[in-house]
């Protein structure tokens, strides 16, 4: 169940065309991924994110959605980071302090979210941004965050900006979204996905998930240089039930429609459902029903929806003839549906032409025949037709 959120600080005064330039899908952090010692309480945490589109004015969203206790934030600073996560170093001269309703700190209630006041902060496309949070009272066992950051964060005792000898952890905590005041023509694409979108198999601190590859291509193309990319993948996530984090069917209102400036959606989730299915065909049909609901709601908001075919998994424990039947059924619907505004054929891009139910061996991560390596993600991000993001005219049908 998606908890009601408190989004008060800074909203009334924030004018302009706000577009998400970075975001992540939060969940209750699993015990083994909780903040390491010395913990969050009364300590400082520096987290690094790589944005998509740049700008001159930004605001930050923080979440306490899954926490059972309030989280006290004493202060937050933004700065340009010198790396994409491999060090905690920043350009000190770029540092700006955030406020929340004009105050340096804010207490986020259990189940709540907050947004900072807008602040002048110049950052370029694909800039690395350090978010430094100074905590007061805060739990390290009931924490809202995103475990699969593929980016190193830095935790240091006390209220400090010196992160030399900091404790390192490859997780994000409490950060939710960074938004930029952008030109009216700018917009964002939000991606609903699981670990293949979250980036399992990509390189830590190199920001080379397939969504990152797509973002760089969009920025390099004159017609799409104002498109932000929001990666809403959660490792181990399912559309229907089970898995890690809230299911896709329950979180999509938050992770797709709750983002600022979304003009496009990519649906690329189902492999965990299919891999654990008792009936592959029935599971595929239920996923299609969820996708149809999302499409109809998106079209009501004027948002285009693209379907991405599910990549092969023969050789993984997920594979059975029945599960493959479900994958084939879902992919056939994606390729032929009258409801989708476009198709991204990841399956065709990475499958083995001599054994189409398996991916090409050069794309394998840890030989699990499910996740891709950096080369595979480069191929996925590179196969997407950028013309999808320049289409105008009527949206697709609301009925197949």
Mean pLDDT metric: 96
Return the string of H and E elements. Answer: EEEEEEEEEEEEEEEEHHEHEHHEHEHEEH
Question: Which spans of ≥5 residues are poorly predicted at pLDDT below 50?
Answer: 1-13
Query: How many beta-strand elements?
Result: 22
What shape does the CA trace take? Answer: globular
Strand content: 25-35%
What structural category characterises the helix and strand content?
alpha+beta
Q: State the end-to-end distance.
A: 29 Å
Helix content: 10-25%
The major β-sheet equals: 7 strands, antiparallel
Total DSSP helices: 8
C-alpha-based Rg, rounded: 20 Å
Produce the secondary structure layout.
Elements lengths: L17 E6 L3 E2 L14 E8 L4 E9 L7 E10 L15 E2 L8 E3 L4 E3 L3 E5 L4 E8 L8 E3 L6 E5 L9 E3 L2 E2 L1 E7 L5 E7 L1 H4 L11 H11 L6 E7 L14 H8 L6 E7 L2 H5 L4 H21 L3 E5 L12 H16 L5 E3 L1 H5 E2 L2 E5 L14 H9 L18
Parallel strand pairs: 16-17, 16-18, 18-19, 19-20
Antiparallel strand pairs: 1-15, 2-11, 3-10, 3-12, 4-8, 4-9, 4-15, 5-6, 5-7, 5-10, 11-14, 12-13, 21-22
Helix pairs in contact: 2-8, 5-6
Description:
Helices cover 20% and strands 28% of the residues. Strands 3, 5, 6, 7, 10, 12 and 13 form a 7-stranded antiparallel beta sheet that branches. Strands 1, 4, 8, 9 and 15 form a 5-stranded antiparallel beta sheet that branches. Strands 17-16-18-19-20 form a 5-stranded parallel beta sheet, with helices on both faces. α6 links the parallel β19 and β20. It is globular, with a radius of gyration of 20 Å. The N terminus is likely disordered.
């Amino acid at each position: 169940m998606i908890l009601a959120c408190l989004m008060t600080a800074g909203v009334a005064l924030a004018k302009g065309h706000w577009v998400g330039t970075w975001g992540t899908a939060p969940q209750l952090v699993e015990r083994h991924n909780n903040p390491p010692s010395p913990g969050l309480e009364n300590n400082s945490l520096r987290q690094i994110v790589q944005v998509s589109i740049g700008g001159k004015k930004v605001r930050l969203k923080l979440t306490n959605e899954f926490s059972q206790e309030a989280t006290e934030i004493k202060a937050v600073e933004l700065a340009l980071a010198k790396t994409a996560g491999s060090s905690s170093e920043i350009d000190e001269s770029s540092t700006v302090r955030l406020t929340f309703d004009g105050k340096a700190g804010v207490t986020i209630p259990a189940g709540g979210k907050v947004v900072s006041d807008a602040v002048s902060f110049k950052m370029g496309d694909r800039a690395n941004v350090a978010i430094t949070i100074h905590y007061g009272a805060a739990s390290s066992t009931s924490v809202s965050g995103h475990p699969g950051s593929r980016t190193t964060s830095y935790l240091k005792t006390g209220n400090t900006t010196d992160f030399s000898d900091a404790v390192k952890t490859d997780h994000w905590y409490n950060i939710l979204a960074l938004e930029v005041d952008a030109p009216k023509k700018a917009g964002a694409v939000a991606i609903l996905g699981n670990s293949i979108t979250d980036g399992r198999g990509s390189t830590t601190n190199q920001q080379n998930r397939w969504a990152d590859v797509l973002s760089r291509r969009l920025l390099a193309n004159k017609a799409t240089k104002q498109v932000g990319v929001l990666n809403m993948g959660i490792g181990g996530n399912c559309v229907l039930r089970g898995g890690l984090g809230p299911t896709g069917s329950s979180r999509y209102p938050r992770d797709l429609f709750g983002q600022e400036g979304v003009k496009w959606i990519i649906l690329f989730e189902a492999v965990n459902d299919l891999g654990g299915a008792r009936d592959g065909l029935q599971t595929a049909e239920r996923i299609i029903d969820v996708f149809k609901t999302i499409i109809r709601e998106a079209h009501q908001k004027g948002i285009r929806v693209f379907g991405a075919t599910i990549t092969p998994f023969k050789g993984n424990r997920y594979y059975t003839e029945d599960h493959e039947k479900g994958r084939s059924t879902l992919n056939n619907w994606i390729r032929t549906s009258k409801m989708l505004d476009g198709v991204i054929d990841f399956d065709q891009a990475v499958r083995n032409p001599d054994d189409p139910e398996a991916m090409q061996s050069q794309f394998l991560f840890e030989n699990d025949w499910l996740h891709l390596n950096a080369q595979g993600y480069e191929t996925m991000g590179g196969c997407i037709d950028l013309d999808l993001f320049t289409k105008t005219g009527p949206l697709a049908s609301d009925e197949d």
